[in-house]
Amino acid sequence: MPNIQIVTDSCAHFLNAHFVEQNPITIIPNKIRIGGRTYLEGIDLTSEEAVRLIAHEQFTPVVTSPTESEFAEVYHRLAATSDAIISIHPSQHFYPSWANGLAAAQQIGGHCETAVIDSQTLSVGQAMLVRVAATAISEGASVEEVIRKVRGAVERIYSIFYVETVNSLLHNKIISGSHAILGAMLGIKPFLTIEGGYLTPMEKVRTRAQAIERLVEFVVEFTEIDDVVILQNKPHMSEQTRMIQDRLALEFPNRYFPYTLYNPSLAALIGTDATGVVILETEMEEIDDGF
Do residues 25 and 132 both lie within one domain? Predict the structure, then answer.
């Protein structure tokens, strides 16, 4: 069985830290600047601390991805004892992690294949792809098969977010100033989706009740789900999450819908006042048309 190592950055948000410890996964932290101080995401800044700090700052935090040299250092270390490295990163339209990893991979030659993959998402969606890779490795898949499974899963990650405060969306040019002003005048809040690696406004709602209804409708559209997570802006279950879980329990009586406080890298993009759902749809089996 080949020795395959997984590399990712702290944009990937795992619900279970033990999962990372139990698998061949290396996480390189982002640097996050909040209020004049720089932190290493996931090392000296937890998601709970980040949301609290960001909520009290006037300016949107600045996220700095691992550099080419930081990726190269990790790749060289792993390559010395590995057959392959699979490096999974947030969408290149959010952060430059993928580009930095790709440049670093070109420095690795010889026996260790290095595949650098743009997840076209981030946060728990990116972590879901890491999980796909780790599961395939544990099942003894070849390097080519692991890469195929991860790239296939990229197309099956779906995300939707309801955002109540639009300052970060304005700063990151996800919505325009005119849309923000119109939304404030009409009392409407944006829904966002990740499509083609971009955060894109898709519709608007007026109330939290309407937002919850739309989030539930989004999940119900899927008949086969491999993985699903509710993202919220509080460390403990929010009222919105409780209502979503209650509604989904009627639609999926045998399924649990976990929740988590989303991580700083995502908060820097959408702010600290959002609720979302991320789904990994089950891979459809190929249909044999032969007789």
Answer: yes
pLDDT in tens, 254-274: 899 999 999 999 999 999 989
Domain count for the chain: 2
Range of the domain at 218: 157-281
Inter-axis angle of helices 208-220 and 239-251, nearest 10: 40
* Residue 287: burial class (beta carbons within 10 Å; 0-12, 13-18, 19+): exposed
Q: What are phi and psi of 8, to 5 degrees?
A: -150, 180
Pairing of strands 31-34, 25-28: unpaired
- Predicted structure pTM score: 0.92
Interacting residues of 149 by C-beta distance below 8 A, sequence separation 6+: 132, 133, 136, 141
pLDDT in tens, 215-247: 999 999 999 999 999 999 999 999 999 999 999
Query: pLDDT tens across 163-220, in order?
Result: 987 788 877 777 655 555 455 545 568 889 999 999 988 877 778 888 999 999 999 9
Written as one letter, the residue type at 172 is N
Dihedral sign of CA atoms 136, 139, 143, 145 in order: negative
248 and 200 together in one domain: yes
